[in-house]
Specification:
alpha+beta, single chain, 3-stranded antiparallel sheet, 365 residues, globular, 2 domains, 16 strands, Inositol monophosphatase family protein, 9-stranded mixed sheet, D-Maltodextrin-Binding Protein, domain 2, Fructose-1,6-Bisphosphatase, Chain A, domain 1
Length: 365
Amino acid sequence: MTDALRTLAADLCDRVLDAHRSAQAEALERTGSVRVLFESRGQGAGDETFALDERCEAAVDAWARDHARAGPLSVLTEDRGWRHFGPDPGRDGASIELASFDHGGPRLAVDPVDGTRNIACDLRSAWTVVSACGPGPGTPRARDVTHGTVSELPVTAAASARRFVADEGRGAAVESRACVLGEPIGAPCAPSVLRVDTSDEPRGYLPFFRYDPHLRPAAVALESDFLERLIEHEGASARHLYDDQYISSAGQLVLLALGTYRFVCDPRPLLGARTSTAATTSKPYDLAGALVLAREAGCVVTPLDAHQLPPADGSALPFDFPLDTSAQVGFVGYHNPATARRFAPHLVHALERAAPHRQPHADRP
């Protein structure tokens, strides 16, 4: 099943990448800008839908119906939620929608464009995230995901696009392909192994994601407390502690796996609960496949919400959210285990000061 899931995910990502590049080229030809791809199309099942989302969602729908001619599958997308497809018994070579998961085929949660607000303004890449599971009788959970593909949707000027692939227990890899706007997308180059380094130096990009304006004061206070502890206790230099605000959960985890980010924290569910704010947060379809990628590359990624703080010893807890369009997901990620062990006590100290929790950590510094 693993190889079959990998093949399905690759074919799906090819289809979305082609739709994305076509949408960019058509927008430039028609208006001289890709800004038209940022036009709102209303609220989808999981998030606001923009013109680019609509175009790529249509590509996923067509792909699912095409593949269902040969065998059943279930597909979740950001705009439509879970749908089920299979061969049409009354028409040879056709497909129909099915009633439920009870069909024996794979289950794939897909975010066609994670990072629309970046890419629709041609600012930085977005990502197609595929979280793939084997057959099952109902909605899968994060623990059921055995394959993750995170495929780059590049800006107009980019000449290539990367694709990150991971299977549970088999490691992670990255490949690249030529992707010049207006030209055919090239074949992938040979994949290379993606593996974290061993440095735990307290410097580099250590972002706390603070997308929601109402949560920014609390997020800044949490970030400042954590960074001050790194300066005081770990000898970090304030000049070498950098911030970045990438509006893409999958993009954040890609940068964590690459080592561009040494640490990342998305505290929105926790801070939303603390401040009684209805926060906009990461969703399961943004994260599940990217979590497989980051962990298989060697990162330490652990949940963070109002009821569960990360372990102070730098270990990781399991994620157990449902793959749906409504669950709120927060997380903490460290590039490698050494960084986790060094940073975690200071993060837990800051979180204990910033938000309520059920039980204090006995090993608090």
